[in-house]
């Protein structure tokens, strides 16, 4: 299946996904068919596909991002990193700055409410090798909003703009902003703040059109995303409830966005990314492929987080990979009760013997990249 892209230029200088209405207005912009593998740009950074893998706290580790790239995401994002954490050289926060060669282009997301600290964090993130710095204007979690960061900033456009100005002045990579619609249900704050952030220097905007109060209930209202697209001359990325190729095509044509962002649908299901970018006929993964991909992911997570942290981190992934009828329910229940990753690996191999060959092949394919994996330039630590 293909979606339609019009020939009209947007500020990226590349074709924009367009709505039927725009085609009617623009006589020479005859609809051309193109797939989601049409490149686009954020500032000078070229993004090879129209699919962005979302930032997700507790999920978007390097192993997840590298997997997303392999399955067709054009841009991958780190989870949100605290600017205060970076400022205090908190080990966990610094760990989020580990970037490998096969992740590029990569956006690292920072959150905070102090322009000066955000600028300092942005410098560290740029030094670590991020291609794009994304600023969080959407986190609805109380621990974050009560500090004046995340979605709270949507109600404080002055501070929001000062943050984007400070960050853009501090770095040379493009700076983007990810917003919710506002704090309260029905809020249209993003339509006010978004254009101001662009004036302050944001090179692209992402909108998840739910309120902070909604958390993940109700539906993402992409009519608001379409309104935002009309108000700004930078690429807009649509986030929220994109779970299939069909929805992707619908959201792109409804909104005129440059790209879609996928979050929850990719949890334990990288195959959906391949389906979305248009690997037609990508067959449903076999049990061996699912278990093999999970085994490889487990190995990468251990390498990245260490055995103890990985054991806890991986538990939610067992349900995501093995659920949905892929494996009998008791397997997931068994795995989450095991205390070590090695035990979980053994159990998984017994349930799907063909998985060993799949994960071995994935390991072979990634071997050449290992040298640069987990490399963190000393400058990111500030030398201290
Ligand atoms: C577990 C989880 C963690 C998330 N963490 C972040 C985050 O760190 N930064 C952010 O901007 N959005 C975060 N989000 C929001 C997603 O990026 C995305 O906007 C939202 O889930 C809607 O997309 P979806 O319907 O595809 O899941 C998170 C979402 C989930 C489910």
Key features of this structure:
single chain; 384 residues; alpha/beta; eight-stranded parallel β-barrel; three-stranded antiparallel β-sheet; globular; disordered C terminus; binds flavin mononucleotide
Query: Which secondary-structure class do the elements indicate?
Result: alpha/beta
Strand content: 15-25%
General shape = globular
How many helices? The count is 17
- The N- and C-terminal alpha carbons lie at a distance of 52 Å
Question: Radius of gyration in whole Å, from Cα?
Answer: 21 Å
Q: Helix amount, in percent?
A: 40-55%
Q: Tell me about the largest β-sheet.
A: 8 strands, parallel, barrel
Spans of at least 5 consecutive residues with low confidence: 1-34, 375-384
Mean pLDDT: 88
Q: Count every beta strand, where a strand is a DSSP E run of 2 or more residues.
A: 14
Biggest sheet strand order reads 6-7-9-10-11-12-13-14
Oligomer state equals single chain
Bound molecules: flavin mononucleotide
Descriptive account of the structure:
With 384 residues, the protein is α/β, with parallel strands linked by helices. Helices cover 42% and strands 16% of the residues. The strands form 3 sheets. Strands 6-7-9-10-11-12-13-14 form an 8-stranded parallel beta barrel, surrounded by 7 helices. Strand 12, helix 9 and strand 13 form a beta-alpha-beta unit. Helix 5 packs parallel to helix 7, helix 8 runs parallel beside helix 9 and helix 12 packs antiparallel against helix 16. It is globular and about 60 Å long. It starts with a strand and ends in an 18-residue tail after the last helix. Flavin mononucleotide binds next to loops.
């Amino acid at each position: 299946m293909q979606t339609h892209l019009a020939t009209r230029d947007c500020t990226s200088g590349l074709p924009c996904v367009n709505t039927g209405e725009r085609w009617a207005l623009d006589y020479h912009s005859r609809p051309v068919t193109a797939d989601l593998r049409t490149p686009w740009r954020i500032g000078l950074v070229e993004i090879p596909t129209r699919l962005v893998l979302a930032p997700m706290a507790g999920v978007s580790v390097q192993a997840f991002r590298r997997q997303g790239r392999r399955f067709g995401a054009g841009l991958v994002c780190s989870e949100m990193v605290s600017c205060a954490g970076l400022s205090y050289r908190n080990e966990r926060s610094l760990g989020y700055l580990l970037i490998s060669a096969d992740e590029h282009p990569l956006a690292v997301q920072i959150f905070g409410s102090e322009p000066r600290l955000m600028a300092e964090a942005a410098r560290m993130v740029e030094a670590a090798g991020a291609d794009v710095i994304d600023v969080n204007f959407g986190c609805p979690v109380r621990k974050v909003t009560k500090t004046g960061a995340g979605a709270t900033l949507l109600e404080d456009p002055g501070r929001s703009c000062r943050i984007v100005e400070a960050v853009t002045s501090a770095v040379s990579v493009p700076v983007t902003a990810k917003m919710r619609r506002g704090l309260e249900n029905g809020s249209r704050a993003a339509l006010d703040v978004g254009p101001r952030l662009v004036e302050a220097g944001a090179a692209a905007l992402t909108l998840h059109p739910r309120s902070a109060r909604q958390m993940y209930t109700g539906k993402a209202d992409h009519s608001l995303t379409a309104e935002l697209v009309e108000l700004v001359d930078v690429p807009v990325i649509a986030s929220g409830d994109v779970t299939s190729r069909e929805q992707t095509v619908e959201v792109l044509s409804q909104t005129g966005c440059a790209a879609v962002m996928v979050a929850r649908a990719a949890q334990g299901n990288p195959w959906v990314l391949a389906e979305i970018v248009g690997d037609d006929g990508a067959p449903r993964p076999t049990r061996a492929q699912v278990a093999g991909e999970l085994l490889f992911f487990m190995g990468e997570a251990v390498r990245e987080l260490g055995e103890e942290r990985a054991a806890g981190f991986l538990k939610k992934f067992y349900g995501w990979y093995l659920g949905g009828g892929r494996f009998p329910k008791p397997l997931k229940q068994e795995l989450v009760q095991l205390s070590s990753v090695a035990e979980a690996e053994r159990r998984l191999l017994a349930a799907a013997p063909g998985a060993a060959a799949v994960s071995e092949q994935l390991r072979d394919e990634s071997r050449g990249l290992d040298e640069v994996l987990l490399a963190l330039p000393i400058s990111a630590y500030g030398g201290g």
